[in-house]
Amino acid sequence: MLKTINTYGSPVLRDIALPVTSVTPEIRQLISDMFETMYAAEGIGLAAPQVGESIRLFIIDLHPMDAKEGRRVFINPELLEFSDEKDVYDEGCLSIPTVREDVVRPTAVRIKYQTPDGEDRNEWIDTFLARVIQHEFDHLEGVLFTDRISAIKRSLLKKTLKKIADGEIEVEMSENYQL
Ligand code: GNR
Ligand code: NI
Description:
By secondary structure, the chain is an alpha+beta fold. It has helices spanning 25-40, 128-140, 151-165, and strands spanning 45-47, 57-60, 72-82, 86-92, 100-106, 109-114, 120-125.
């Protein structure tokens, strides 16, 4: 089932999400719904708070067109270490439609998380995945990428952000997507 993506101004995007205590059938259904929703919205990542569930879980698929292998699920993630090296990328967010801005972040991170099968993983990630992981992790802390740009750039975006908050700019959903 497709979920509605909450946009800028929705209070749930500012909440600190709660840990997932066990992977119940409801959580498995949520994960499945999140993939469906993410593909329909043509995103490469989605955090549970974006679909109204304030729990510590996000999904990523950097290559949605390349079948199922790219699907990643991160439950109760912790970012344990960051590279000193940083880079810049023009980020977007499904919850902030039409807005893209350069965000500086560490190039690599160490992430500890659980899989849906209850396994603990600990990985050093030094590819573009590290960028998306940090963006998604921020959602679990109530942080949006627009919080990480300069005050000047943010003030230039103020009108657009207000329009999004007022429901005048909506998330585009693709009409014919493939699961
Ligand atoms: O689809 C998305 N693209 C993206 C590009 C650069 C950095 C992060 C992202 S994640 C975003 C989907 C989204 O809003 N996830 O929370
Ligand atoms: Ni986002």
